[in-house]
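Weekly modeling sync, notes
Attendees: AB, CL, MP (scribe)

Item 1: holo prediction request
CL wants a bound-state model with N,N-dimethyl-L-histidine before deciding which constructs to order. AB pointed out that an apo prediction alone won't tell us much about the pocket. Agreed to run with the ligand included and paste results into these notes for async review.

Input as submitted:
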Amino acid sequence: MSFAEEFVAGLRTRHIAPKWFYDAEGSRLFERICLLPEYYPTRTELALLDRHAPEFAARIGTGAEIVEFGAGASVKVRLLLDALESPRRFVPIDISGEYLAEAAATLRADYPGLAVEPLAGDFTRDLVLPPAAGRRIGFFPGSSIGNFEPEAAQALLARFRQWLDGGALLIGVDLFKEPAELHAAYNDAQGVTAAFNLNLLARANRELGADIDLGAWAHAAFYHPPLRRIEMHLVSRRRQVLQVGGERFEFDEGDSLHTENSYKYGVEGFRALARRAGFEPGPVWTDAARRFSLHWLEPANPA
Ligand code: AVI
């Protein structure tokens, strides 16, 4: 479904998938989130990638192909590429085509010997990957897996397993921690996460000709302990009517649009999920404070 269709359907169900955050503006806002002092996942994962790059390179081997799911600015993969011996090809996949093309051009300039073949598309849908050039290794950093419901996360991992054609997956997973620390990460003092959330409505104004008053909506993010997830919502500050796609949607003061879940895992819980998706979990790397984890997953019984 297109953004227009899903946005209108989302106004009906009051639930919109987080993938629609990432137009060019949303991708840029997400890049700013990654630099925030409160948002620990990015710097923690970067430090892990940096510290263990030689180990990853030894596991990946010579002449491999890296496929990155949800590549964004492709910053993290550089730590892998720098450590790899003669990587053959890099295939970044991202839903924001415009943003992906920019990032691919920069990578080509920085890695002249590497074939960079971006694929603009939605990896939660059917996507046709080019035939593998060398051993194919999947890279899914950032704990984006946490933005899927656990059953959908399992289905997505199973799909990656098929796409990887016998190759392994290196995946970043945010870990459960003190709720106050989680809360701060999604309610930063500069309001960048709020702007990221509100950009969904700004995008509807830009692309769908909606006339939504952004000042009439508030960012809300909180940790929900029973479900082990951060929930993000846009909350209506007053009674209002939205007119989008020829339909009318009424929101009362306090009504919310649920825009994102970000699940937090325990190491063992995530390994169990990976097993259910057909992977044999290998080593796990975490920082000293056990904020974030990187998992090496091999396909169980490769064909
Ligand atoms: C991309 N994803 C893993 C981020 C997260 O933490 O769930 C998206 C995000 N939402 C608000 N801040 C960051």
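Recorded for review: The CA atoms of residues 75 and 103 lie 9 Å apart.
Action items: CL to compare against the apo run; MP to circulate these notes.
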